[in-house]
Input
Amino acid sequence: MRTVTDVVAVAAGLGIVAVVVGGTYVLSAHGGLEYRCIVDGPYPAFTRVSDDLSGLAGRFALWPLGRECVWPSAAGDGAVTAHGDAWGPTVMAGAGLVLVLFGVVDAIVARVTTRRR
Output
């Protein structure tokens, strides 16, 4: 019975991670990452960016989970990276990973203690 619980914990944890990461990606990239950067940000704080957005790059980041935008600097000396502040999905995905870890560790402990008997 303990093994079934471990399998369910691992499956549920992987499901949570897949749904949260996949859902966050779909919401972050709908219409294109660069387009979502222009429309929704994140925008750099306390830094001027260039009006020419040809150097704008958007990408999906795993920490924190969500969109990351690289804006061309107004000074022309590089780029400014702005990270999203989506800590809710990051925490939920982390909880799913903890559930997976719990299931794996518990299965290993059950197997080791069963062999010793």
About this structure: The two ends are 17 Å apart (CA to CA). The helical segments are 2-29, 33-40, 87-116. The longest helix spans residues 87-116. Residues 44 and 82 are 5 Å apart (CA to CA).
